[in-house]
Amino acid sequence: MAVDLSPTPDVAELVERTTAFVRDVVIPPEERHGGVARTEDVRTELQRAAKDAGVFAPHVSHEYGGHGLDMRGRAAVFEAAGYSLFGPLALNIAAPDEGNMHLLEAIATDQQKERYLRPLATGEVRSCFAMTEPAPGAGSDPNALTTVAEREEGGWRINGHKWFITGADGAAYAICMARTSGTDAGKAGATMFLVDADNPGMRLVRHIDTLDESLYGGHLEVLFEDCRVPDDAVLGEVDEGFRYAQVRLGPARMTHCMRWLGIARRSQDIAVARAADREAFGSRLGELGMVQQMIADNEIDIAASRGLITQACWELDQGRSAAQSTAVAKTFCAEAIWRVVDRSLQICGSLGVSGDVLLSRFLREVRPFRIYDGPSETHRWSIARRVLRRHDTEVRR
């Protein structure tokens, strides 16, 4: 029996409308701004246009104004949106807001959803997720968490040093991860807290200068100094923060892959158009064997990435942890997407290096993806451990 991986009719129609919207409405300002949106006017105008086009918030439930797509449905739509660096921002599916919406829908109280999720889902506000810390704090290993929250009368007091907090500049609130019990990494409990940006105990220190620039609101260093929050600021249950992080991180890794796969396709399209038109050495570039190999390898990497994303999303939609499949997909996609953009730039030669097309910007943007959401090396370590554990279990049977 043939396996049909095509999207459902409603998803296919949304993909078609998203594709047209990105092509006609989103790419022109993206090219004018060099792929970097620096003002609220750009964000609000794009999101208003996305609402008018009926493509806004495909991932959020109908209750909060979205289309309520499952992970497999999101894969096709997010890829279409990701064809432009401004596409995710326009559809309100950019990191970190998209992952925070997913988390809030899953574990927030009704009151928290009204106060924090609804305005985020409609694009009225932005948010950030404050977990990463400077060394020796939490990075690839979240158990190294050094930020501490202590109980006090009526609530909690948070102290800690965060950095690389994406979108913190202009965010209305942060979801802050802090240690709330234990000191041993293997036994410690952590809790997520909702911290309003106007809390005097939360301070933005600086923008971190980074290779990438397209993630709206930058990457910031943030201090929590005697930051007092009430009991109702606890997101989920006390000491369950690490478990909740997995609720967010698995799907968020996949949505990163979906969005960047759109940029890989855009890069391939730019390269193919160049190879079809540019003449050198008596023929079109596309007739040269080495260029054909790069085009073919790009197609292979794009197709393989899409297949791995589909598999992981299917597992997530089935309610499985999908830890292995999301790790495999994230590792492969991060490296494959880089290869596609790099080959595409190589095919375009000096044009690719120039600012006349956005390939050099795409290259800078996709390189950090091999580090964000877990470096490839960390995922490979986890993948291998699971394989070895499975072998040991089978041997003992």
TrEMBL record:
Residues 239-388 form the Acyl-CoA dehydrogenase/oxidase C-terminal domain. Pfam families: Acyl-CoA_dh_1 (PF00441), Acyl-CoA_dh_M (PF02770), Acyl-CoA_dh_N (PF02771). The keyword Secreted does not apply. Keywords: FAD, Flavoprotein, Oxidoreductase. PROSITE patterns: ACYL_COA_DH_2. Its cofactor is FAD. Its EC number is 1.3.8.7. GO terms for cellular component: cytoplasm. Residues 128-208 form the Acyl-CoA oxidase/dehydrogenase middle domain. This is Acyl-CoA dehydrogenase. It comes from Prauserella sediminis.
